Amino acid sequence: MATDLNPTAHDSHDNPRHIAIIMDGNGRWAQKRMMPRVMGHHAGVKAVRKIVEYCAKQGIEVLSLFAFSSENWRRPREEVNLLMDLFLSTLQTEVDKLDKNNIRLKIIGDRAGFSNKLQLKIRDAEAQTASNTGLTLVIAANYGGRWDITQAVTQIVAGIQNATIAPGDVSEALIDNYLVTAGLPEPDLFIRSGGEERVSNFLLWQLAYTEFYFTKTLWPDFDGALLQEAIASFKGRQRRFGHTGEQMLDNQNGYALLQ
Known about the structure:
CATH class: Alpha Beta
Structural class: alpha/beta
Shape: globular
Number of domains: 1
Strand content: 5-15%
Distance between the termini: 26 Å
């Protein structure tokens, strides 16, 4: 589903529909406290709970969290194994709570890299929450933006080869339909904790018109108050989508008159 980029469709004073977050700083949070890095990841899960609860209460439609990138396999094997165990145990303990609170869970990324047990748990968790109509919680695991674009192009090429897609039908909207985020609105607000200021191969296609917000706060210390600061920054910006500021004001005034 192609995203509507009509600037009048979403008032700049509204909450963002879709917030995407790179949850950076778990390991450094633990190291600052002379603790093993894995303890930072456990603390990070607690922060996730707070942010999910906050977004659900604020009426945010989609919250996307970058949990494990395709590049994170390069980390020490022990840490990767602990992260996989944490991912599995968190799914097992949290899915009932998500379901009870009308939250839909969607996992995006290359699942082939996971164990069969974890793949099954992902499928079960998604199926259990599939009919929920509240917040959609997207967890990016073994995900990379370049991988996402590549797998979309691969599917489109296959469609052209078997004549289900005409070459002339290839467009931005068609590509969008083959990304793993198909059907979701593009992110309005991107947040990265931990002090780094880069997107690290996260949602490369989808972030084209997203507002960025960076904070030095390490992820385990990130909470609803800090998220509200990011949202307030978002609300104070003018999203022009290639138009001039004057055009945006004219469009917004015209839209207001129609209400």
